[in-house]
Amino acid sequence: MPEHYETLPSDKEPVLRLVAMPTNTNAFGDIFGGWIMSQVDIAGSIAAHRRAGGRVVTVAVNAFKLHRPVFIGDLVSCYAEVTHVGRTSITVHVDVYAERDTDPACCLRVTEADVTYVAVDADRRPRPIDHQA
Ligand SMILES: CC(C)(COP(=O)(O)OP(=O)(O)OC[C@H]1O[C@@H](n2cnc3c(N)ncnc32)[C@H](O)[C@@H]1OP(=O)(O)O)[C@@H](O)C(=O)NCCC(=O)NCCS
Known about the structure:
Bound molecules: coenzyme A
């Protein structure tokens, strides 16, 4: 099936970019979904940490869709956008794009997810977020 290539979002910067390596593969030689989930969690936590102004923990992954596979050598870019700020929680939408063999002309959105984080204090208790920040 021919791919319909996309372009990276031009109006925002990725919070994370990395090349998928042979050590990140599953038993069949494609990139392991758990590795992508890990990158999504890291990318979302960077946005949540910035918005919370400090330590956050992941409390829930409320949606996760792996649209297409990722292959060794793909340049993976994660975009994160805060979509909701509660009393102590922050929900982040993460979009993941892969550029095949790092070629910008062969770009696909491979994954999207909604991840919720909770701002915590030094004792790991939920901490109110400053809504004026
Ligand atoms: C995150 C944690 C501190 C929350 O503690 P808690 O006593 O459940 O806190 P609360 O019930 O007050 O919930 C805190 C916030 O999380 C939200 N929340 C809890 N469960 C949720 C879920 N499944 N989906 C979405 N939001 C959720 C609550 O709605 C609340 O948000 P708000 O303050 O903005 O209204 C606790 O569950 C925890 O430590 N979990 C383990 C986290 C972890 O180890 N993550 C992996 C390492 S980063």
